[in-house]
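agent> fetching stored inputs for the cytidine-5'-diphosphate docking request
agent> found them:
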Amino acid sequence: MIFTVAIDGPAAAGKGTISKAVARHFGFAHLDTGSLYRAVGVKGGDPIQAALSLTQADLDRDDLRSLAAGQLASKVAAIPDVRAALVEFQRSFARREGGAVLDGRDIGTVICPEAEVKLFVSASAEVRARRRHKEVGGDLADVLREVIERDQRDANRADAPMRMADDAVLIDTSEMSIEQAVAAAISAVTAAFPTR
Ligand code: CDP
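agent> prediction call returned; pasting tokens
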């Protein structure tokens, strides 16, 4: 069975938590596509070469979740050749046998426009900054600035900008608990996948 769940949305909206829970619930594989861009960003050197030669060790680095890695990621993510180098891997993951959940910015629009389910997970910038602050610590104002700056860069780049697909379901998690957001996502997937 080929079945893709595309989960897009701005920084720290809860895509990672929701994606993992949806993948676990349905027994699908999960790919956090942001980790690819984070790994390219922190690898250093020529970002196009880095994207072409990413290894599992690059993806296993323990500094990928830092604010600095997020900033580096959104800078290299604006380079068309970097994105092009990562397309094939993401597309074949999306259409692998057994079902897949991918989270990112352009999954429903560019990587897998044929995805059976598209979710756009969002929340206010303040709520997202508070959540990311719990994860990375530091100064809340710095985290808020980082989140807003990255969203602007991601939404305004020329190649594959962050955008909600026309046929995506919007889940605004500003006022939701994790459990509620996960339940909303699972019910959107179930609606497209009624045999579960
Ligand atoms: O976890 P968070 O939402 O903060 O970010 P992420 O999903 O790890 O993505 C890090 C950065 O990678 C984003 O700010 C984007 O610039 C870039 N990205 C992208 O361009 N396309 C994707 N499909 C996924 C991430």
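agent> quick read of the result: The first helix runs from residue 15 to 26.
agent> awaiting further instructions
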